[in-house]
Structure prediction request, 436 residues.
Amino acid sequence: MKTRRYYLETFGCQMNVRDSEKMAGVLEHEGYVRTDDPKHADLIVFNTCSIREKAEQKFFSKLGRIKSAKKRNPQVKIAIAGCIAQQDGKKLIQRSPYVDYILGPQNIFRLADIARGDMPSPYALEENPHLTEDDLPSRRLDGIKAWVNIMYGCNNFCSYCVVPFTRGRERSRPSRDIIKEVSELGAQGYREVTLLGQNVNSYSSDCSFPELLRKINECTGIERIRFVTSHPKDLGDDLIYALRDIPKVCEHIHLPLQSGSSRILALMNRKYTYDEYYEKVRKLRENIPGIAITSDIIVGFPQETDDDHRRTLDALESIGFDGLYAFKYSPRPHTHAEKLDGHIDDETKSARLEEVLKIQNRSTDRINKRLEGGVLEVLIENPEPGQNDPSVVTGRTRTNKVVISPRSGDIQPGDRVMVRIVRARRHSLIGEIAQT
Ligand code: 5AD
Ligand code: SF4
Prediction:
């Protein structure tokens, strides 16, 4: 039988990257082989993101271009998966009739039906009650670092966010399934796991999130544990102490602030004030010296005044994040914020974004500069695709900073080495191996 090929392109967050590993696993289990060229594919899958309008536009322009693939080869099947699929559902096929299948994030396993030609309908958008028990085959992208889902969905309904509508209600995986997966990864040679959930602090299954971290700490082979994303409202002392006390848990937390104005935080339905957030940062730093804290900010939320924006800038100055993702507010379908009065014009959003980035760049430079001369533990990673310079090795510190160092001795991906930081740059540190 002729080899069947699939082309898979991923947009969006780590959650989608992980889902794509499962999509690849399911298709390969059905005998498909991956191709990097959509022209050679029998099945084209887009795993899409709808978090902001820009992410949607990126996908739709891609989809427009793929139309010709179908003209050239009417046999090719096109499947749209992920968050846009769930959000737009049937509208997608009305808009782009050359699309064959629409699969929501809870229906990855249905790719097997598509592969076998047994898919009874073009749509798979239902809730999947077995999502947390599913053990789908998976084709992981990297051999050192692995993403592991611990929970799916979100119950927070931040007023700007589409995720509760695309990924459904929050559900946690049983801890024994997670431990089994992590133990297998350790045995396969993986050294680092990043636990994934929209709000890992509200993990609740047969144990709490800090208890889960303690159990994962026992998994042989795994040397580093990370997690994303934490919601400030659920970050309790027990997690702070877990970060302090559990040896493999790395000293980094991504803790989205979103705004420095408590008035805007209330409109965002974030359920904390700026002062409460600041207090958590203080406690983290008091208990875990050297912890790296990164964050997300949205500028130009509806009704955000110059004074609210000033509070965000002041917050960035006083906290001093190690890194920041900053976004212009983008109205999303179904969300509460979309319906608010007082939307901000794009020019103001752009100007505010620029001010945020300027302050952040100064913070990043200042914090990284302090690392010069110090010696840090670096886990050597596989080179990024297309960046295979044999004279250097790259890896990350426990605080998640990228380190590039001239190769020395027989250093391999997966090794943990001590590196002296000789020069700090904004997005990476230049080091030299101090001790292997
Ligand atoms: N507009 C702009 N940014 C958004 N985010 C989520 N929804 C929106 C939106 N509608 C940002 C938040 C979140 C990150 C993943 O994306 O900062 O933490
Ligand atoms: Fe990820 Fe949210 Fe984008 Fe969905 S909408 S892919 S959950 S960032």
User: Anything to note?
Assistant: The chain has 13 helices and 19 strands. The chain has a mean pLDDT of 96.
